[in-house]
Amino acid sequence: MDMQGRVALVLGVAKKRSIAWAIAERLHRAGARVAFTYQGERLEKNVRELAEQLDPEALVMPCDVTRDEDIQAAVAGVGERYGRLDAVVHAVAFAPSEDLKGRFTDTSRAGYGIAQDVSAYSLIALAREAQPYLEKDGGSLLTLTYYGAEKVVLGYKVMGVAKAALEANVRYLAAELGPLGIRVNAISAGPVNTLAARGVPGFTHMLKHHAERAPLRRNVTTAEIAETALFLLSPASSGITGEIIHVDAGFHIMAM
């Protein structure tokens, strides 16, 4: 799975333990040049320090995915620096914490809209801006989802609905962009102890339950998720699009 000479844009790196960082690191080791975005000044220092570990000259740009102009600027920045874009990793999601703590029926209209905008619509906006670059050499878009999009996961609430929309976006984008040679897929990862995951009520119990029920009797690692991401972003998966690939130690196949 050689990515030599290819360029990847990764959105969503926050900390060293984040899934997005594991994917970026794996892409770099496979030979790709990796560009990064960060959301807000609070995360800028972390992202810049991590990016410099891979490449002191790595492109690092601000990007609030609720702003079309930020997405446009980020994609254009990659194009100006490298002249191409072959792979895009969409690893951003958000819902207000108060909408994850109460009853689902108490989800605020504003909170619902924010969750959909950040977690689902942003993939469409990103695909639109990246299309002119990705279609040149048959590029690939990848996003991250979770089993809460398919089944009820207590505590996930409005994020589960947003992830369900995200998975539908993957299928519709794959159908529309496929004739242009662009592939769109998602990884449905098992629970991983990241900064974002710790915001989900009952997350510690979720980890324990997953490890007890999954056929492999354990949780997955960010490294395992990153290996699958590399496959889906590389030419090795050239015949795969519109798929939701589960990397969850087999948890999703279980019923009783």
Which labels suit this protein?
256 residues, alpha/beta, Rossmann fold, 8 helices, 7 strands
Strand order of the largest sheet: 3-2-1-4-5-6-7
The rounded distance between the terminal residues' Cα atoms is 37 Å
Q: Which residue ranges are poorly predicted, with pLDDT under 50 across at least 5 consecutive positions?
A: none
Order of helices and strands: EHEHEHEHHEHEHHE
Query: What is the strand tally?
Result: 7
Overall shape: it is globular
CATH class categorisation: Alpha Beta
Computed CA radius of gyration, to the nearest angstrom: 17 Å
CATH homology-level superfamily: NAD(P)-binding Rossmann-like Domain
The mean pLDDT is: 95
Q: Find the CATH topology.
A: Rossmann fold
- Beta-strand portion reads 5-15%
**Count of domains:** 1
The computed structural class is alpha/beta
| CATH architecture group name | 3-Layer(aba) Sandwich
Number of helices: 8
Instruction: State the helicity in percent bands.
Output: 40-55%
Biggest sheet architecture = 7 strands, parallel
Report on the architecture of this protein:
By secondary structure, the protein is an alpha/beta fold. It has a single domain (7-249), classed as NAD(P)-binding Rossmann-like Domain (Rossmann fold, 3-Layer(aba) Sandwich). The chain is 46% helix and 14% strand. Strands 3-2-1-4-5-6-7 form a seven-stranded parallel sheet, with helices on both faces. β1 (7-11), α1 (19-29) and β2 (33-38) form a beta-alpha-beta unit. α3 (68-82) packs parallel to α5 (109-137) and α5 runs parallel beside α6. The longest helix is centred in the middle third of the chain and has 29 residues, at 109-137. The radius of gyration is 17 Å and the shape is globular. The mean pLDDT is 95.
